[in-house]
Design a protein that fits this description.
117 residues, mainly beta, Rieske Iron-sulfur Protein, three-stranded antiparallel sheet, 0% helix, iron-sulfur, iron
Length: 117
């Protein structure tokens, strides 16, 4: 028996609200989500991760610096400088820390995040 993932795509902002090679923060069901738009990256170029730094509990991830460590796209937390992989939210320095990630896409001029995943 196969299971089907059912989810709903919700618009959270317009493409014009994104900042190239940087983060912006949007609200999704009362949570802050950091969006990172990397238009020149090969393959996937839009990421959605939790804006809350798991070490400090402060909503700052959207202000972090984007980097590449050993071929992994990462975001560095502005407070404690730990690095989180954009594709799965895992922390390079502290494996017990993790950011929630959401599927995200551009649909025309809308940025949409999948909920119910």
């Amino acid at each position: 028996m196969s299971q089907t993932n059912t989810h709903e795509w919700r618009p959270v902002c317009d493409k014009q609200d994104l900042v190239r090679n940087s983060g912006v923060v949007v609200w999704l069901d009362g949570e802050q989500v950091a969006l990172f738009y990397l238009p020149d990256a090969e393959g996937k170029n839009l990421y959605a991760v939790d804006n809350c730094d798991p070490q400090s509990g402060v909503n700052v991830i959207g202000r972090g610096l984007i980097g590449n460590i050993k071929g992994e796209l990462v975001i560095a937390s502005p407070l404690y400088k730990q690095h989180f992989r954009l594709h799965d939210g895992g922390c390079l320095e502290y494996p017990e820390q993790r950011l929630r990630v959401w599927p995200v896409r551009l649909s025309g001029q809308n940025v949409e995040i999948a909920v119910g995943v």
